[in-house]
Amino acid sequence: MPTIGVKRDLLFKLLGKTYTDEEFQKLCFEFGLELDEVTTEKQMITKEQGEDSQLTSGASEEIIYRIDIPANRYDLLCLEGLVLGLLVFQKKLPFPLFSAVKPSEGDLQKLIIKPDTAKIRPFAVAAILRNIQFDADRYNSFIDLQDKLHQNICRKRTLVAIGTHDFDTIKGPFFYDAKSPKEIKFKPLNQDKEYTGEELMELYSTHAQLKHYLHIIKDSPVYPVITDSNGVVVSLPPIINGDHTKIKLTTKNVFIECTATDLTKAKIVLDTLVCMFSQHCSNKHTVEYCEVINPNGTSVLYPGLRYRTEVVSAKKINKKNRY
């Protein structure tokens, strides 16, 4: 069962009510969650790393709620989804209708999948969030949700890898291909020089987080890579994005791509991301389609954002709840 940490005061502000710890614990229980721990950033670091003045010197004393989330509720793995779920549950907010639209100006952005991707990671989906407004808390939540999804439904990036990019720094159409590691050369996120695919394996072999994902592609004769129409490397999934497309607080338009070995999981991940963060767009709960063109020439618009209606009798449900 995954656990998320949210700032208590920010959570209460968004919920429009201040709770005692006991009151919020009760609300969580009624909703099907569990308030696991009331702590601070400093206490969490101390617990994980031990007493170290260098590690804790900049840590906040702000109260953090650590909340256990059911394994199948990917929409609750961030502050945005948690607040939405609780407000709808309390009937303080109607459930929003999410929609995908074509661009008001210009053509659909395209992601073209090349045949060689079948050798390593055959599927990809994509979408664009337009006119989004980030602040520090929203940005951190956006990054944290990707990490939570990677660790859960994405099975540590083996099934799905997420790439998010400043759309205004690149130009479509985009190409998803698989190339020899020696052919791939770019400046990875937060680095100051270019590396080949081979050199990246060495660079990140001791990296605290990224070293755990290298095995997914390291021994393959080809590595997956996404480029824009100018040849700019957008990402080397499932390892690292390019520094060129790094998202900042000033980013207004976000290009999201998910590469995968499981297309169904990729669709769920993309839908989750765009639904949670489209509420920060100027046109709330709306996301822009991308057209994904498969190697066989067929094309699909993503995200799906499909709704369905289920009719189930209370008698049948009650039978399911008997132990």
UniProtKB/TrEMBL annotation:
Transmembrane segments: none annotated. One of its GO terms (cellular component) is phenylalanine-tRNA ligase complex. Keywords: Aminoacyl-tRNA synthetase, ATP-binding, Cytoplasm, Ligase, Magnesium, Metal-binding, Nucleotide-binding, Protein biosynthesis. Residues 120-282 form the B3/B4 tRNA-binding domain. The keyword ATP-binding applies. It catalyses: tRNA(Phe) + L-phenylalanine + ATP = L-phenylalanyl-tRNA(Phe) + AMP + diphosphate + H(+). The keyword Lipid biosynthesis does not apply. SMART domains: B3_4. Its EC number is 6.1.1.20. It is an enzyme of class 6 (ligase). This is phenylalanine--tRNA ligase. It comes from Aromia moschata. The lineage of its organism: Eukaryota, Metazoa, Ecdysozoa, Arthropoda, Hexapoda.
